[in-house]
């Protein structure tokens, strides 16, 4: 299992030099910053890094729908950032009201909140292959995930969909979501262009981005997704959650 090993101040206490650094910083009132900046995770000794796929695309581009198909076929564990946030609202946690107001307004929840929720799911899962859906939404999200979780995605999917189509889909989604209305949708599209586009460009420059034309039937779109995972089949085969029907599972005949 993959676990976060560094927590708050533990790295500071691990060596004499870092101990004195900690004292000096405390003297200068920097202890809070230190505890934040040392909150970096690493895979357990001997443990493999998890296989991570980020799933990006505008609101209504079909991320969730395609994630269901990917899970069915490849057995990855689906973590929807939006669902985790909505769960906080439903459970009336301390951040619930704040999250609700941001979602209603199409705004992005503070990185620390979302990353902590994702981190908890990653750490408590027996799986080592994840689909992280609808995250990172901003460059700040991306950097916070890297810093707090300490992992990089292996694959980044981008469902590329025209705005008109996304609007039609969202207005017909019918899941009772507070943000599925034209006013919020217009704000979300602007935020997508301003904040999510740079994340997409970042992964494009890193050679990790796979752009999928998100117009067409669900099955047609999935046909574009399938070959993206082929080069990773060895890693994916080792997943404990792989569906027996997966084409990546070796069958003895
Ligand atoms: N290829 C498609 N063609 C038409 N409608 C789709 C397609 N894919 C998804 N939908 C529908 O569009 C809406 C938004 O899809 P969803 O998967 O929730 O998108 P996202 O997670 O990107 O917001 C849902 O009602 C879904 O059933
Ligand atoms: O990493 C995330 C993911 C979602 N959200 C918020 O949750 C809303 C819904 O996100 P979700 O991914 O569920 O929407 P989708 O794109 O699937 O329609 C977004 O507009 C944001 O307000 C967020 O702040 N950070
Ligand atoms: Mg979704």
Automatic annotation (TrEMBL):
Q: Where in the cell is it found?
A: Cytoplasm; Nucleus
Q: Mostly located where?
A: cytoplasm
Q: Where along this sequence does the record place binding of a ribonucleoside 5'-phosphate?
A: 86, 107-109, 134-137, 177, 188
Q: Which GO terms describe its cellular component?
A: cytoplasm; nucleus
- Residues annotated for CMP binding in this entry: 141
Residues the record lists as binding ATP: 60-65, 173, 216
Q: Which residues cross the membrane?
A: none
EC id: 2.7.4.14
Cofactor(s) needed, names only, are: Mg(2+)
> Which UniProt key words apply to this protein?
ATP-binding, Cytoplasm, Kinase, Nucleotide-binding, Nucleus, Pyrimidine biosynthesis, Transferase
GO MF annotation terms: ATP binding; nucleobase-containing compound kinase activity; phosphotransferase activity, phosphate group as acceptor
Entry coiled-coil feature ranges: none
Q: What is known of its domains?
A: Consists of three domains, a large central CORE domain and two small peripheral domains, NMPbind and LID, which undergo movements during catalysis. The LID domain closes over the site of phosphoryl transfer upon ATP binding. Assembling and dissambling the active center during each catalytic cycle provides an effective means to prevent ATP hydrolysis.
Quaternary structure annotation from Swiss-Prot or TrEMBL:
Monomer.
Name the record gives this protein: UMP-CMP kinase
């Amino acid at each position: 299992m993959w676990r976060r090993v560094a927590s708050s101040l533990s790295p500071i206490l691990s060596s004499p030099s870092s101990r004195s650094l900690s004292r000096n910083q405390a003297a200068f009132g920097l202890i809070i910053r230190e505890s934040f900046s040392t909150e970096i995770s690493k895979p357990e000794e001997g443990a493999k890094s998890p296989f991570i796929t980020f799933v990006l695309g505008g609101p209504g581009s079909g991320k969730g729908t395609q994630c269901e198909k990917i899970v069915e076929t490849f057995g990855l564990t689906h973590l929807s950032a939006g669902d985790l946030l909505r769960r906080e609202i439903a459970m009336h946690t301390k951040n619930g009201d704040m999250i609700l107001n941001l979602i209603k307004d199409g705004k992005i929840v503070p990185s620390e909140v979302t990353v902590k929720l994702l981190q908890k799911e990653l750490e408590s899962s027996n799986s080592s292959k994840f689909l992280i859906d609808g995250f990172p939404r901003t460059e700040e999200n991306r950097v916070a995930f890297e810093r707090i979780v300490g992992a990089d995605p292996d694959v980044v999917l981008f469902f590329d969909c025209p705005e008109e189509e996304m609007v039609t889909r969202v207005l017909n989604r019918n899941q009772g979501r507070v943000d599925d209305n034209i006013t919020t949708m217009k704000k979300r599209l602007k935020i997508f262009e301003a904040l999510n586009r740079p994340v997409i460009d970042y992964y494009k420059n890193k050679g990790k981005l796979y752009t999928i034309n998100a117009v067409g039937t669900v099955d047609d779109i999935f046909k574009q997704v399938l070959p993206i995972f082929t080069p990773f089949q060895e890693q994916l085969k080792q997943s404990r959650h792989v569906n027996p029907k997966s084409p990546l599972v070796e069958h003895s005949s």
